[in-house]
Write a structure and sequence with these properties.
This protein is mostly helical and about 400 residues long. Helices cover about 75% and strands about 5% of the residues. The protein folds into 3 domains: about 45 residues; about 90 residues, Up-down Bundle (Receptor-associated Protein), CATH 1.20.81.30; about 240 residues, Up-down Bundle (Receptor-associated Protein).
Length: about 400
């Protein structure tokens, strides 16, 4: 969104300017970063937002970072690299974002301030990494750290997604087969057996009674199914429902402990990247607070207070319940060696491997159980449908 700002500069003169920001708070923060005291602010959707419906998917931050780092390593300076990337994209959102970055650099703004002006494309972690790199003059190394950080996060997600594809397909196919049997085949068998319903086995009568009900109320059931699916989709889109569902999942002992390990691994990896970028520990922990689940954030606040009071990070996180036994021991080693950033990355990698092993084990155990349940359900329905025929054949003999 574009904001029109009137403010006082350091010489107490009134200035007017336009800024791109995600919301009003971000716009005020950008203005304060330029040394301005805002007294009037109004916002409207920018032309880019109107054309794209505020979609940021066309600009991929990770790809931009890889390309920018490659050009910097090839010997181009920052302006030349940005200009090359902008020329490569003739039009579209990506071209406009690169053009705005290039224009900000040419106005004399730091690169960190230029990327901070586009929070919909560059998260705070990215901005902080770049800002820390500007103090040391190691932008290439900072981009490399951020790329490696994103690759590690993506690796865990890919493992979980790839492991869940086959069970999801199997469950969908099984549900379709069961639906076909219950809502198409069983009602037709029910009409065949209507005249001999008193002689049917008990469970066959129940199944065929369900078939009769489906046959006589097909339109009502279809409407109810659509309503349930629509209501479920609406509920999933609501943040309150997702938060409630997340709390319920955390309460499952086996699943909740693994979810916590995943959250802690992401915390360790992010804090480790920020520490290697030269950001102080307290600031790094504050920046990563939003990455944690809501019920873990008070524990992180408690850990920050302990670190502020002089406690080591390993002890503070351990006392706040944010350190596994392995993590606490490895953090002690990092504190002794003075390389806590690298050690936190190693801890995150260790826990990622633990999560990967659990996902593989769960998938291997869940797939045969799911196949057995679906096969048993389908077989039971078929047997109950054909049971009267078997009994009739036995009576004829």
């Amino acid at each position: 969104m574009q904001f029109r700002i009137h403010a006082l500069d350091v010489r107490q003169q009134v200035v007017a300017l336009s800024l791109e920001a995600a919301d009003e708070a971000a716009a005020r923060e950008l203005a304060r970063g330029r040394g301005l005291e805002v007294f009037s602010l109004s916002g409207k959707a920018s032309s880019l937002d109107l054309r794209l419906g505020r979609r940021a998917s066309a600009f991929r931050t990770a790809l931009f970072s890889v390309e920018l780092m490659s050009l910097l390593e090839a010997g181009l300076n920052l302006v030349e690299a940005l200009q090359t990337l902008a020329e490569k994209e003739a039009s579209g959102e990506r071209h406009e974002v690169l053009a705005r970055l290039l224009a900000a650099i040419r106005r004399g703004e730091p690169f960190s301030q230029a990327v901070a002006a586009a929070p919909q494309h560059f998260p705070p972690l990215y901005v902080a990494t770049v800002k820390a790199a500007e103090r040391t003059g190691s932008l290439k190394e900072a981009l490399g750290r951020y790329i490696a950080y994103q690759e590690e996060l993506a690796k865990v997600k890919k493992r979980v997604v790839s492991a869940s594809i086959y069970p999801a397909v199997l469950l969908a196919v099984g549900a379709l087969v069961l639906s076909f049997l219950m809502f198409y085949v069983v009602p037709r068998f029910a009409r065949v057996y209507e005249d001999m319903s008193t002689a049917l086995p008990f469970f066959s009568r129940l199944l065929l009674a369900f078939g009769n009900f489906v046959g006589h109320n097909a339109a009502l059931l279809a409407f109810a199914l659509i309503a349930v699916l629509g209501g479920s989709a609406w509920a999933i889109m609501r943040p309150a429902f997702r938060a409630w569902l997340n709390r319920k999942l955390w309460q499952i002992p086996a699943l909740g402990s693994r979810m916590k390990i995943y959250q802690l691994a992401r915390l360790y990896r992010t804090v480790g990247m920020l520490l290697r970028a030269g950001i102080p520990a307290l600031r790094a922990l504050e920046m990563t607070e939003e990455l944690l689940a809501a019920h873990l954030r008070p524990q992180l606040v408690e850990a920050r207070k302990k670190i502020h009071d002089g406690r080591p990070m390993s002890a503070a996180l351990g006392e706040a319940g944010l350190a596994t036994p392995v993590a606490a021991r490895m953090m002690l080693v990092g504190e002794r060696s003075g390389d806590m950033g690298r050690m936190l990355g190693e801890i995150a990698r260790f826990h990622d491997e633990e999560i990967a092993r659990y996902v593989d084990w769960f998938t291997k155990a869940f797939e045969p159980v799911l196949m057995a349940v679906l096969g048993g359900a389908i077989g039971l329905i078929v047997v109950l449908m054909y049971m009267p025929i078997f009994e009739l054949a036995g009576n004829i003999q």
